[in-house]
Amino acid sequence: MKSVKLLLFVPFIGLLGFIPAANRIEPYVFGLPFLLFYIVFWMVLSSILLTVIYKLDPENRRRDS
């Protein structure tokens, strides 16, 4: 279970660690500047990862049943 909880660091590293590398306006992705697209992408990915971690946590399985 601890290895699954390590997934919590992925959004943290993605959002804070690589922002300087993604700090540019071009290219445009779906009409958004790259930095804005990058932040939105990580917000969506963070939500998905948190849902996966919640579903895999045995403590939450006992409460939901």
Gist of the model:
With 65 residues, the chain is mainly α.
Question: What key attributes describe this structure?
Answer:
65 residues
Q: Which SSEs are present, and which pair or pack?
A:
Elements: H1 2-5, H2 9-17, H3 19-22, E1 28-29, E2 32-33, H4 34-56, H5 58-64
Antiparallel strand pairs: 1-2
Give a structural overview.
The chain has 65 residues and is mainly α. The protein has one domain (2-60). The chain is 72% helix and 6% strand. The chain is built from five helices and two strands, in the order αααββαα. The chain has helices at 2-5, 9-17, 19-22, 34-56, 58-64; strands at 28-29, 32-33. The chain has a two-stranded antiparallel ribbon. A hairpin with a 2-residue loop joins β1 and β2. The chain is elongated. The two termini are 19 Å apart. The model has no long low-confidence stretch (mean pLDDT 83).
